[in-house]
Structure formats: C-alpha cells, structure tokens
Amino acid sequence: IPPPPQELAGQELNVEFVSMLAQAQRAIATNGIDRFVGNLGVISKAKPEVLDKFDADNWADQYSDMLGLSPELIGNLSILHPPFLLGLLAGGAVIYWFTGASMNAVTTGAYYAVEFIKKNIKLEGVIKASVEDSKKVVEICTKFAQKGMINLFLAIFFSTLAFAFLDSYFFIGYLVSIALFGLYQAIFMANAGGAWDNAKKVVETELNAKGTELHDATIVGDTVGDPFKDTSSVALNPIIKFTTLFGLLAIELAIKLSVDQKPLVLGLAVLFFVLSMVYVTRSFYSMRIKVDAH
C-alpha cells in the first residue's frame, strides 16, 4: 500500500478490500458452505446421525467471518432476542397507527367541507357552484390535509430518532417491520379501496340500480375506499423511504455518540419518544370533529 498523502499523514486509516475479486472470492466461499449445509439437511432426513458431524457454533463463526459480520450480530437478529422482537412489534404498530391517523385526517376534512356546502352553497336550480365557494371548499380540505400531515410527519420523525437512539437491534427490527408491514398494508388498502370503488361502478352501470339500498351500500363503501386507495396506501411509500433513509443516518450518529456518551443517547431517546407521542396524540385528538360545530 503506498504511503498516505500529506493531508492524511498521522491520521488513522481503515482500509477495506472491496474489489470485485475479493467479493467474488467471498461469494464462492459462502456458496460452498450453503451447498454443504443444504446437502447435509437432505441426507439427514434418511440418516439423522449425520448431523453429529455438523458444528453449528463453528459454522456461525466461519460464515459470519466470510461475510464480514460479527457472529453476535447474526445471533441477535432473531425473534428470540427481545430488543429485535420489540422492534418488529413497534414497526407494525407505527404502520397501523399511520393508516388510521391519515384516514382520520381525511374524514375530518371531508366532514367540514360537507358542512360548509350544506350551510353556504345552494345548488337547487344551479348548474355548478360559484368560483368563490369552490375555492373555499378546496381551502377547507387543504387546511385539514396539511394539519394532519404535519402531525403525522413529526410523529414519524421523532419516533425514528427515538428508536435509533434507544437500541441498534431494536431499530433493525423496527426498520424490517416498517418495510414488511408497510408493503403489505399498502397493497391491502389499495386493493380494498379499488374493490369498493369498482363495486359502486358495477351497481351503477351494469346493474342499473341507482337509488336502491344496494347502491346506498356501495356509496358507503366507496366513501371508505377512496381514502384507502388514494390517501393511506400511497402515503405509506414515502413513509417507508423516509424512515429507512433517515433512520440509517440517525443510527450512525447514535452509535458514534454511545461510545463515550451513553447516558446522553438514552436521554435523547426518551426526549424524542415523548415528542413523538405528543404528535401521535395530536394526530387523533386535534383532528376530531367538534360536536358543537353544528
């Protein structure tokens, strides 16, 4: 290795071999182990005693060394490791809270828009509402959308910081859960919302059943389906991206600080968690429909 340039003289350097040849050699080595373990499992079905030749601890040490990982990391990435398991549960909880809170924000905005239309816009004998009234309705919807999204974003922001500063294995489980739960919840909500929307169209166009109880039922379903497919499901995509990208930066900072200032890191985790709970509470209670609004 040539000497370092003058600008780096006297500084500690961490040199890692990341060449294509090194990566290929590592892949070939791990592939051999994978084939051996796989064949051993097949043979053990006919001859179980062959497993006596397999040393699980030695396998974990060598395999993790070839991957450049610590055996402790592999062992702790298990549902038997409490922080990792709690992280998985926390990620799922955040996904379902987000979908519920975003639906709540849409519901509240739609309610006040409808109330404004009932009180101020007279559509009898009029082809369409005035531009001023239309702008007011859009303003109401925009106001509640922005208010709801600010609460949701700040809750996600501070919870990501809190979990990153709390424990690295907890945060790994949290990120895995956010990605998995978020993906399948988004697919579910998009498909369910689309099914409700299509059901209403089928009743109106193919069955010609407008004005019937069946049509009324599909209208209710479509009212739920639209925010399902147009709000909550599509909003999960940026939530997953932001949490993973921002979280990786946060966990790096937390690990560096925890080397010398562990109490500070735990204190920041508690502070960020309290702040996230404040905005979680606001996402529901500040977006509630006021009874005296009538």
Written description of the protein model:
Helix 4 runs parallel beside helix 6 (about 170-205) and helix 4 (about 80-120) crosses helix 7 (about 215-260). The protein has eight helices and no strands. It is extended and about 85 Å long. The longest helix is centred in the last third of the chain and has 48 residues, at about 215-260. Helix content is about 80%, strand content about 0%. It is an all-alpha fold and about 290 residues long. The mean pLDDT is about 80.
What secondary-structure arrangement, pairings included, does this model have?
Blueprint: H1 20-46, H2 56-67, H3 71-76, H4 82-120, H5 131-166, H6 168-205, H7 213-260, H8 262-285
Q: Strand count, sense and closure of the main sheet? A: none
Give the termini distance in whole angstroms.
Answer: 78 Å
Q: Percentage of helical residues? A: over 70%
Radius of gyration: 28 Å
Summarize the helix and strand pattern as letters. Answer: HHHHHHHH
Roughly what fraction of the amino acids lie in strands?
Answer: under 5%
Descriptive labels:
78% helix; 294 residues; mainly alpha
Could you give a short description of this structure?
By secondary structure, this protein is mainly alpha-helical.
